Amino acid sequence: MTDDADSAAAEGSVTALREGAILRVTLDRPERRNSLSHPMIDEFVAALTEAATDDTLRAIHVRGAGADFCAGADWVATNTEGHRPRTGALARRIPHTAHRVIELVHSIQLPVVCSVRGWAVGLGCNLALAADFTVAASDAVFWEPFLTRGFSPDSGSTWLLPRLVGLARAKRMLLLGEKVSGADAADWGLIHQATDPAELDAAAEALLARLASGPTVALGLTKQALNYGQHATLPQSMTHELSSLELSCRTGDFKEGLAAFQQRRTPDFQGR
To answer: How far is CA 15 from CA 24, 39, 259, 263, in A?
Structure first.
Protein backbone atom coordinates (compact mmCIF):
# COMPACT_ATOMS: atom_id res chain seq x y z
CA MET A 1 0.00 0.00 0.00
CA THR A 2 1.34 3.45 -0.89
CA ASP A 3 1.83 6.25 1.63
CA ASP A 4 -1.19 8.06 0.16
CA ALA A 5 -3.30 4.93 0.49
CA ASP A 6 -2.10 4.44 4.08
CA SER A 7 -3.03 8.03 4.88
CA ALA A 8 -6.49 7.68 3.31
CA ALA A 9 -7.14 4.47 5.25
CA ALA A 10 -6.08 6.12 8.50
CA GLU A 11 -8.53 8.97 7.91
CA GLY A 12 -11.41 6.51 7.52
CA SER A 13 -14.39 6.78 5.21
CA VAL A 14 -18.15 7.17 5.10
CA THR A 15 -19.76 4.66 2.78
CA ALA A 16 -23.26 5.16 1.38
CA LEU A 17 -24.72 1.99 -0.12
CA ARG A 18 -28.23 1.55 -1.37
CA GLU A 19 -30.33 -1.47 -0.40
CA GLY A 20 -33.66 -1.15 -2.19
CA ALA A 21 -35.22 2.11 -1.06
CA ILE A 22 -32.98 2.40 2.03
CA LEU A 23 -29.63 4.24 2.01
CA ARG A 24 -27.14 2.64 4.41
CA VAL A 25 -24.59 5.17 5.64
CA THR A 26 -21.70 3.60 7.55
CA LEU A 27 -19.09 5.51 9.53
CA ASP A 28 -16.03 3.37 8.90
CA ARG A 29 -13.04 4.05 11.12
CA PRO A 30 -13.39 1.42 13.85
CA GLU A 31 -9.82 1.71 15.09
CA ARG A 32 -10.66 5.27 16.21
CA ARG A 33 -14.20 4.44 17.36
CA ASN A 34 -15.42 5.99 14.09
CA SER A 35 -14.32 9.49 15.07
CA LEU A 36 -15.01 11.72 12.10
CA SER A 37 -12.01 13.09 10.19
CA HIS A 38 -12.42 16.07 7.85
CA PRO A 39 -12.64 13.82 4.76
CA MET A 40 -15.28 11.66 6.47
CA ILE A 41 -17.41 14.68 7.30
CA ASP A 42 -17.14 15.87 3.70
CA GLU A 43 -18.23 12.42 2.48
CA PHE A 44 -21.11 12.40 4.95
CA VAL A 45 -22.34 15.81 3.80
CA ALA A 46 -22.08 14.75 0.15
CA ALA A 47 -24.02 11.52 0.76
CA LEU A 48 -26.85 13.30 2.58
CA THR A 49 -27.01 16.09 0.01
CA GLU A 50 -27.33 13.57 -2.80
CA ALA A 51 -29.95 11.58 -0.87
CA ALA A 52 -32.05 14.72 -0.39
CA THR A 53 -32.72 14.92 -4.13
CA ASP A 54 -33.18 11.19 -4.78
CA ASP A 55 -36.91 10.58 -5.17
CA THR A 56 -36.46 6.81 -5.09
CA LEU A 57 -35.12 6.70 -1.52
CA ARG A 58 -37.55 6.22 1.35
CA ALA A 59 -35.36 5.97 4.47
CA ILE A 60 -31.77 6.47 5.65
CA HIS A 61 -29.91 4.24 8.10
CA VAL A 62 -26.79 5.60 9.85
CA ARG A 63 -24.53 3.20 11.72
CA GLY A 64 -20.94 2.76 12.82
CA ALA A 65 -18.54 0.03 11.79
CA GLY A 66 -17.35 -2.28 14.54
CA ALA A 67 -18.07 -1.93 18.25
CA ASP A 68 -18.92 1.80 18.42
CA PHE A 69 -21.21 4.31 16.76
CA CYS A 70 -19.11 7.49 16.66
CA ALA A 71 -16.60 9.07 19.03
CA GLY A 72 -17.21 12.55 17.63
CA ALA A 73 -15.03 14.83 15.57
CA ASP A 74 -11.35 13.95 15.42
CA TRP A 75 -9.94 16.84 17.43
CA VAL A 76 -6.54 15.15 17.70
CA ALA A 77 -6.09 15.34 13.93
CA THR A 78 -7.55 18.84 13.82
CA ASN A 79 -5.05 20.12 16.39
CA THR A 80 -1.87 18.70 14.95
CA GLU A 81 1.22 19.78 16.87
CA GLY A 82 2.85 22.78 15.28
CA HIS A 83 -0.24 23.66 13.24
CA ARG A 84 -1.94 26.86 14.32
CA PRO A 85 -5.12 27.66 12.37
CA ARG A 86 -5.99 31.20 11.47
CA THR A 87 -8.08 33.19 13.93
CA GLY A 88 -11.76 32.44 13.37
CA ALA A 89 -11.05 29.15 11.59
CA LEU A 90 -13.66 27.23 13.58
CA ALA A 91 -16.37 29.82 12.95
CA ARG A 92 -15.63 29.64 9.22
CA ARG A 93 -15.36 25.88 8.84
CA ILE A 94 -17.79 24.21 11.25
CA PRO A 95 -21.01 25.60 9.69
CA HIS A 96 -20.03 23.80 6.47
CA THR A 97 -18.79 20.58 8.09
CA ALA A 98 -20.00 19.21 11.45
CA HIS A 99 -22.95 21.58 11.71
CA ARG A 100 -23.98 20.81 8.15
CA VAL A 101 -24.20 17.10 8.98
CA ILE A 102 -26.57 17.82 11.88
CA GLU A 103 -28.67 20.22 9.79
CA LEU A 104 -29.06 17.71 6.97
CA VAL A 105 -30.00 14.81 9.26
CA HIS A 106 -32.49 17.04 11.06
CA SER A 107 -34.08 18.61 7.99
CA ILE A 108 -33.88 16.06 5.17
CA GLN A 109 -37.37 14.99 4.12
CA LEU A 110 -36.59 11.31 4.61
CA PRO A 111 -36.83 9.46 7.92
CA VAL A 112 -33.38 8.90 9.43
CA VAL A 113 -32.70 5.98 11.77
CA CYS A 114 -29.48 5.65 13.76
CA SER A 115 -28.46 2.37 15.36
CA VAL A 116 -26.03 2.92 18.22
CA ARG A 117 -23.77 0.48 19.98
CA GLY A 118 -20.76 1.34 22.10
CA TRP A 119 -19.83 5.01 22.30
CA ALA A 120 -21.78 7.97 20.90
CA VAL A 121 -19.70 10.99 21.89
CA GLY A 122 -19.87 14.72 21.10
CA LEU A 123 -20.73 15.13 17.45
CA GLY A 124 -21.56 11.40 17.39
CA CYS A 125 -24.00 11.84 20.27
CA ASN A 126 -25.64 14.84 18.60
CA LEU A 127 -25.89 12.95 15.31
CA ALA A 128 -27.90 10.27 17.12
CA LEU A 129 -30.08 12.93 18.77
CA ALA A 130 -30.75 14.74 15.49
CA ALA A 131 -32.01 11.54 13.82
CA ASP A 132 -35.74 10.92 13.71
CA PHE A 133 -35.33 7.60 15.49
CA THR A 134 -32.34 6.25 17.36
CA VAL A 135 -32.25 2.65 18.53
CA ALA A 136 -29.40 1.84 20.90
CA ALA A 137 -28.00 -1.12 22.71
CA SER A 138 -28.89 -0.89 26.39
CA ASP A 139 -25.19 -0.70 27.28
CA ALA A 140 -24.35 2.00 24.73
CA VAL A 141 -22.96 5.26 26.13
CA PHE A 142 -24.11 8.76 25.18
CA TRP A 143 -21.64 11.43 26.26
CA GLU A 144 -21.23 15.17 25.69
CA PRO A 145 -17.64 15.71 26.87
CA PHE A 146 -17.14 19.25 25.59
CA LEU A 147 -16.61 21.00 28.93
CA THR A 148 -14.48 18.16 30.29
CA ARG A 149 -12.13 18.92 27.37
CA GLY A 150 -12.16 22.65 28.13
CA PHE A 151 -14.36 24.06 25.38
CA SER A 152 -18.03 24.87 24.93
CA PRO A 153 -20.51 22.59 23.09
CA ASP A 154 -21.26 22.65 19.39
CA SER A 155 -23.11 20.60 16.74
CA GLY A 156 -26.52 21.44 18.13
CA SER A 157 -26.19 19.97 21.61
CA THR A 158 -27.53 23.09 23.38
CA TRP A 159 -30.59 23.08 21.08
CA LEU A 160 -31.26 19.34 20.93
CA LEU A 161 -30.82 18.29 24.54
CA PRO A 162 -33.22 20.72 26.29
CA ARG A 163 -35.93 19.91 23.74
CA LEU A 164 -35.51 16.17 24.19
CA VAL A 165 -34.93 15.79 27.94
CA GLY A 166 -35.49 19.20 29.53
CA LEU A 167 -33.09 21.80 30.87
CA ALA A 168 -32.11 20.02 34.10
CA ARG A 169 -30.95 16.84 32.36
CA ALA A 170 -29.35 18.86 29.58
CA LYS A 171 -27.24 20.60 32.22
CA ARG A 172 -26.26 17.26 33.72
CA MET A 173 -24.99 16.08 30.35
CA LEU A 174 -23.36 19.34 29.24
CA LEU A 175 -22.20 21.13 32.40
CA LEU A 176 -21.35 18.04 34.45
CA GLY A 177 -20.39 15.78 31.55
CA GLU A 178 -22.52 12.89 32.80
CA LYS A 179 -22.51 9.77 30.66
CA VAL A 180 -25.93 8.28 29.89
CA SER A 181 -26.47 4.59 29.09
CA GLY A 182 -28.66 3.47 26.24
CA ALA A 183 -31.23 2.17 28.72
CA ASP A 184 -31.38 5.50 30.59
CA ALA A 185 -31.42 7.43 27.32
CA ALA A 186 -34.59 5.58 26.32
CA ASP A 187 -36.15 6.14 29.76
CA TRP A 188 -35.39 9.86 29.51
CA GLY A 189 -36.87 10.17 26.02
CA LEU A 190 -33.46 11.04 24.64
CA ILE A 191 -33.75 8.24 22.06
CA HIS A 192 -36.52 6.11 20.58
CA GLN A 193 -35.63 2.68 21.98
CA ALA A 194 -33.02 0.67 23.87
CA THR A 195 -32.62 -3.04 23.23
CA ASP A 196 -30.51 -5.96 24.30
CA PRO A 197 -27.24 -5.61 22.32
CA ALA A 198 -27.95 -8.85 20.45
CA GLU A 199 -31.33 -7.50 19.30
CA LEU A 200 -30.16 -4.07 18.10
CA ASP A 201 -29.87 -4.90 14.40
CA ALA A 202 -33.27 -6.59 14.28
CA ALA A 203 -34.95 -3.65 16.04
CA ALA A 204 -33.40 -1.14 13.65
CA GLU A 205 -34.38 -3.23 10.62
CA ALA A 206 -37.99 -3.52 11.77
CA LEU A 207 -38.20 0.24 12.20
CA LEU A 208 -36.57 0.92 8.83
CA ALA A 209 -38.92 -1.49 7.07
CA ARG A 210 -41.92 0.25 8.62
CA LEU A 211 -40.70 3.71 7.62
CA ALA A 212 -39.63 2.68 4.13
CA SER A 213 -43.09 1.28 3.44
CA GLY A 214 -44.86 4.44 4.59
CA PRO A 215 -46.22 7.44 2.65
CA THR A 216 -42.82 9.04 2.03
CA VAL A 217 -44.00 12.49 0.97
CA ALA A 218 -46.36 12.81 3.93
CA LEU A 219 -43.63 11.56 6.27
CA GLY A 220 -41.22 14.21 5.00
CA LEU A 221 -43.81 16.98 5.26
CA THR A 222 -44.69 15.91 8.80
CA LYS A 223 -41.03 15.92 9.82
CA GLN A 224 -40.71 19.41 8.36
CA ALA A 225 -43.84 20.58 10.21
CA LEU A 226 -42.60 19.20 13.52
CA ASN A 227 -39.30 21.04 13.10
CA TYR A 228 -41.11 24.25 12.18
CA GLY A 229 -43.38 23.95 15.20
CA GLN A 230 -40.41 24.05 17.58
CA HIS A 231 -40.13 27.79 17.07
CA ALA A 232 -43.63 28.78 15.89
CA THR A 233 -46.89 29.76 17.51
CA LEU A 234 -49.94 27.48 17.33
CA PRO A 235 -51.62 29.55 14.59
CA GLN A 236 -48.37 29.61 12.59
CA SER A 237 -48.01 25.85 12.93
CA MET A 238 -51.58 25.23 11.82
CA THR A 239 -51.05 27.45 8.77
CA HIS A 240 -47.93 25.46 7.97
CA GLU A 241 -49.87 22.23 8.40
CA LEU A 242 -52.43 23.40 5.84
CA SER A 243 -49.73 23.89 3.21
CA SER A 244 -48.37 20.42 3.93
CA LEU A 245 -51.87 18.94 3.81
CA GLU A 246 -52.50 20.51 0.43
CA LEU A 247 -49.35 18.90 -0.94
CA SER A 248 -49.80 15.48 0.64
CA CYS A 249 -53.40 15.23 -0.62
CA ARG A 250 -52.07 15.46 -4.18
CA THR A 251 -49.90 12.33 -3.87
CA GLY A 252 -50.55 8.83 -5.12
CA ASP A 253 -50.05 7.56 -1.58
CA PHE A 254 -52.98 9.68 -0.38
CA LYS A 255 -55.23 8.09 -2.99
CA GLU A 256 -53.96 4.64 -2.02
CA GLY A 257 -54.50 5.35 1.68
CA LEU A 258 -58.07 6.48 1.04
CA ALA A 259 -58.80 3.45 -1.14
CA ALA A 260 -57.31 1.09 1.47
CA PHE A 261 -59.46 2.67 4.16
CA GLN A 262 -62.60 2.29 2.08
CA GLN A 263 -61.71 -1.31 1.20
CA ARG A 264 -60.64 -2.15 4.76
CA ARG A 265 -57.17 -3.35 3.79
CA THR A 266 -53.58 -2.40 4.54
CA PRO A 267 -52.37 0.37 2.21
CA ASP A 268 -49.56 -0.36 -0.22
CA PHE A 269 -47.72 2.97 -0.29
CA GLN A 270 -45.22 3.56 -3.11
CA GLY A 271 -43.59 6.70 -1.77
CA ARG A 272 -45.12 8.86 -4.51
So the answer is: 8, 12, 39, 42
